[in-house]
Amino acid sequence: MNVEELVRDSLREQAAVVPAPRPGLAGRVLAERRRRRARTLAAAAASTALVVAAAVGVPTLLDTGGPDTGRGRGIHVAGGEVSGQGVQSHVDQSPPRDRIAVGDQVLAAYFTSKKVRQPNRDEIVERTYSVLNQETGRYEADERWSFLAVAPGMRTAAVLERELPAPRIGLLDLRTGKVTRWIPLAQGAGGLFFSPDGSKLVATTYDKNPDRAYWSHKVQVNDDFEPWRVPCRTGFAVVDVATGASDWHALPAYAGGGGGYGSGENLRFNHDGTLLYEPINMDPGVIYRDFDGRKVTTPAEEAHIDLWTAPAGLSPNGRLVAGGFAGGAKTTATQVLDPRTGERVAKLRGQELLAWVDDERLIAWDIAPGGGEYENRLVLVGIGSKKTISLSGARTPKDHSAKRWEPIFARS
User: Fold this and answer.
1) In 3D, which of 221, 224, 223, 278 has the Cα closest to residue 255?
2) What is the pTM of this model?
3) How far is 161 from 406, CA to CA, in rounded Å?
4) What is the separation of C-alpha 76 from the centre of its chain, rounded to a whole number of angstroms?
5) Cβ distance 327 to 26 under 8 Å?
6) What is the pLDDT of residues 85-120, one digit of tens each?
7) In a 10 Å sphere around its CB, with 0-12 CB exposed, 13-18 middle and 19+ buried, how is residue 362 labelled?
8) How many CB atoms neighbour CB 233 within 10 A?
9) What is the Cα–Cα distance from 337 to 315, expressed in whole angstroms?
10) What does residue 263 show for φ and ψ, rounded to 5 degrees?
11) Are 220 and 9 in contact (CB under 8 A)?
12) How far is CA 155 from CA 108, 158, 202, 218, 411, in A?
């Protein structure tokens, strides 16, 4: 029995005998994380059965408890009040129409997605990106691209054309909206990420469209069948942005279980850009690799990074790491950790920590007042602060709809 068959059989068993969901909001939020984990990026079909079974309640309360500020491995976090200084918010807009930013951390773009049914009952998840026009301060839809990544500084984006896998990378001038250069690839790409300094790109390559689900590989989800993605990653290329030079290395989809997650198989750079970070759908959740594709030891300071549940990662000074959900049955809360020990350093507001503004403030998702647990909006939260500042309106809870959007942040 091959890996695809094992995964399909596992999903059928999960759908037929679904284990009792974790009680309260914490378990359902974890299920939601695993359902739409590529924020970046696209929903993971493998967790659909679990999410459908676990959606059993609609808590509407925010965490009203005081911050849990303490010490971890000698780290002391004083924190401070969250203020509106330097904040551009639009709480009446979802998806946003006008610029959202805190300091130099900017919502550079966002995307929505839709499922496009094919004649043979296959489905393709297609993304539509809306990119910040830096002259008008408004987000403009750009339907040319299947994948878009924004470079630090917000002058350039790397793009892939609609048909995946794409044979070339476009470098898009974010001031003019025009492609200034095309970089050819040895194999077709399905996803892109910039290095932290913007000098390199990692392009993950595939032999099929990673966002296509095949009816011929359908799986049972509760009482219905759904088409299923197949592992199709072939490798990756690290691309020098200035010269266009790239070095391709073979790296098939992870075969230890949990493959076939479409664009969720994309590699990205680690915190300092010296290694590649490969997310996987089972423990330990990530594999670190060098630029030749060889497994390497996880850096000590990144031992507790989990971009699935806390995309913000390490703080700018590297002394803290965003942690996962820390709320209760009817409350939301998040946490920051000591990056080396995993010990909680502080507890703060929110559902999911998305991006660090500075060493004490983060942008997060949180439930909108009076909303259900999936009706969340962007908020600004801070270590040691009981206050949150809303930055956007609330998203709809319906996946693959025009008002369910995923943010892309970059520093200006």
Assistant:
1) 278
2) 0.82
3) 19
4) 29
5) yes
6) 799 999 999 999 999 999 999 999 999 999 999 999
7) buried
8) 27
9) 10
10) -70, -5
11) no
12) 10, 10, 18, 42, 10
